[in-house]
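Sharing a chain and its predicted structure for anyone who wants a worked example. Both blocks are below, sequence first, tokens second.
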Amino acid sequence: MESNYICGIHPVTDAVLGGKKIEKVLFKQGMDSPHFRNLMELLQEKNISIQFAPIEKLNSLTRANHQGVIAFLSQVDYVSLEEMVAKAIENKKNPVIILLDGVSDVRNFGGIARSAECASADGIIMPAKGSAAINAESIKTSAGALMRIPVAKVSNLREAIFYLSQSGFQIIAATEKADKNIYDADFSKATAVILGSEDKGISKSSLSLANELVKIPITGVTGSLNVSVAASVVLFEIVRQRIV
């Protein structure tokens, strides 16, 4: 598990109030007390991911007296959406940003980050709730790319898509539901690519905001690619179009 964590309701509350960067907070199932409810409200206010698990899960993570609460500290410094977009536009004529809609597996997330950094993407945006954590496993899978590429967590992905659109980005959703394949799309402009989870894909609300839907042509029986592999295919088609 992550090596950096804080246990107990009061220490976790103090850490959040003190501005510590919290990745997520794990609670024992069935907890209910005034202190617990206060902490829950604080975490929701700060858009910090919350999960519940059996007591056995918490006990397996630490021998410390966790009191039913374990907070995991972020291993990277997140940037704001506004900061990411401003720097991307400042540094590059036609930047590329990746939006992850429902990608929760840390290995897939790490693989996407590795490909994104290799393709010189300008950042990754994902929802604060329900997304993969940046932990030792995701950082290792990314080959350290997560320490180098900007990552932003947002409370509302739709609002982030609106902001990118208003900032001059075309919004491209990579989905098997598309009729157009990625090789017929124009990636020469400032582009934000939406990728969804393997089980549910991109949400309808995100799809509705896309300027264009594109798919990777699949000729085999399996019918779909792992999301991290799909990310690589899309990212390096962008690279190909821009260097030829």
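Comments welcome. Residues 81-243 form a domain with the Alpha/beta knot fold (CATH 3.40.1280.10).
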